[in-house]
Design a protein that fits this description.
Blueprint (H helix, E strand, L loop, with lengths): L2 H6 L2 E5 L4 H13 L3 E6 L11 E5 L5 H7 L5 E4 L10 H16 L4 E7 L9 H16 L3 E6 L1 E2 L6 H7 L2 E6 L4 E2 L1 E2 L1 H13 L8 E4 L7 E2 H12 L4 E6 H14 L1 H13 L9 H7 L5 H11 L5
Parallel strand pairs: 1-2, 1-4, 2-3, 4-5, 5-6, 6-11, 7-10, 8-13
Antiparallel strand pairs: 9-12
Helix pairs in contact: 2-7, 4-5, 8-12, 9-10
Bound molecules: NADP nicotinamide-adenine-dinucleotide phosphate (NAP).
Length: about 300
């Protein structure tokens, strides 16, 4: 069977389908593919779930539930994570369980939401977890597509939008260090397309995501947001030295706090920057920063 025929008949399992990004990936797949869609959550189908999707209960920490969820599945697409709301165990042991179960089930394509530069940041726990999972997927012999995301412009709890409403841009570190960004609508689109792309050249690729006009500093982002919204923003930043001082005490009582501090200190190295060559090859021209900010501002009710 050639790749095109194989993907045309595929059943896709979306892992993490109830998440902020995961739900957008599922919606994007529903809108763009006729392939059979299965979605996994520990709670089963959420209220108001579409009848077009088969919901299964599954837990990354429960091997039997994963084997059941993966029955008859050809493509796995996962953005699940535990570190943001619960524990990082799901990102290490949970991903390991999912990868091993997918290999046992004979999955033909594993689309994994990873992070730009994760292999260069072993001190940032959730970046390291992505790098470890990438290594396990490669070692399993399964065909994969890694979609490596940069920082999200929009979040479930959109602190940037809240700041803008108050005339501020809440920054971390300084106004000058650049890193890459993405709007989650665009990322969900790339993830869905990575699962269904018929060009075999996309297989076994690691695809960085970013904007056409490159990484942006928080000062530059504040100026673009100011231009789009017509608001004069004052940049309020927490200095790097304070972040460095906080690392040790925060480690004692907050796994997530420690992870975030180490992540921002990695950003300072200037290595959290996407190379978008493969993104543009497989998904077309990347958006410009101003275009992405305009769409975000409109969704967040910040337009002029
Ligand atoms: N925020 C950023 O700037 C940024 C940047 C780069 C990459 N990322 C990555 O983007 C993704 C964010 O996804 P999101 O916004 O959809 O996350 P989210 O809103 O935090 O949702 C987490 C998802 O993971 C699932 N999950 C957690 N533990 C699980 C377990 N033990 N078993 C099964 N499912 C489990 C949850 O499912 P149930 O609770 O329904 O079971 C839920 O669907 C993550 O992979 C993150 O690493 C984020």
């Amino acid at each position: 069977m050639d790749q095109q025929a194989e993907t045309a008949a595929a059943r896709i399992l979306v892992v993490g389908a109830t998440g902020f990004l995961g739900a957008k990936i599922l919606r994007q797949l529903e809108a763009t593919t006729t392939q059979a869609l299965r979605a996994m959550s520990r709670r089963g189908a959420p209220a108001g779930a579409s009848g077009a999707v088969e919901w299964v209960r599954g837990d990354l920490m429960d091997l039997a539930s994963l084997d059941a969820a993966l029955q008859g599945v050809d493509v796995v697409i996962s953005s699940a994570n535990g570190y943001m709301k619960e524990t990082i165990a799901a990102d290490f042991q949970g991903n390991k369980n999912l990868i091993e179960a997918a290999a046992r089930a004979g999955v033909k394509r594993f689309v994994f939401l990873s992070i730009v530069g994760c292999d260069a940041a072993p001190d940032v726990p959730h970046f390291h977890a992505k790098s470890v999972a990438e290594g396990l997927i490669k070692a399993s012999g399964m065909v994969y597509v890694f979609v490596r995301a940069p920082a999200f412009l929009d979040q479930a709890n959109d602190y940037v939008a809240k700041g803008v409403k108050a005339g501020r841009f809440y920054a971390v570190g300084d106004k000058a260090t650049r890193w890459s960004w993405v709007l989650t609508d665009d990322l969900a689109d790339y993830m869905a397309r990575a699962a269904t792309h018929s060009d075999p050249a996309i297989l076994n690729q690691s695809i960085d995501i970013g904007w056409r006009d490159g990484a942006k500093s928080q000062g530059e982002l504040a100026r673009i947001i100011g231009k789009v919204t017509g608001k004069q923003l004052r940049v309020w930043s927490v200095p790097w030295f304070l972040l460095r001082i906080l690392v040790r005490p925060v480690k004692l009582f907050s796994e997530l706090g420690y992870d975030m501090l180490k992540m921002f200190l990695f950003f300072r190295s200037g290595r959290f920057v996407a190379d978008i060559a493969l993104q543009e090859r497989f998904f077309g021209p990347a958006p410009m920063a101003e275009d992405a900010v305009r769409r975000w501002a409109s969704q967040a009710g910040l337009g002029e």
